[in-house]
Design brief:
The protein is mainly alpha-helical. It folds into 2 domains: about 1-70; about 70-100. About 95% of the residues lie in helices and about 0% in strands. It is built from 2 helices and no strands. The radius of gyration is 32 Å and the shape is rod-shaped. It starts with a helix and ends with a helix. Its main location: membrane. It is found in: Endomembrane system. InterPro entries: BET1_SNARE. It is a single-pass type IV membrane protein. Keywords: Membrane, Transmembrane, Transmembrane helix.
Amino acid sequence: MDIMAYERERQNNALLESLRTKVNALHEVTVDIRNSAQDHSLIENTSNVFGNLGSGLRGSLGRVRVMGASGTKLSTLKLAGIIVGSVIGLWWIWGWMAGGAA
């Protein structure tokens, strides 16, 4: 009788270990699914931000074109100031990003 009980205990332990392995695999899959969903959400948010940025830039460029088309000396100076300021701003951002990456 003791041999049969020992054999049943061994089988139970083997089945428990198999179940533990399957539960761990299921846990890893659910964590991977959650991480993938969060990555997808981040990508969607980034796309929305860049879409809004593009719309804002198009509106600004439209106003700059109208200002440049008016042809007055003041509007030409404003346009030149905007261009110079934009170039300096982009140069500063590029230097800041390059300096932060090093």
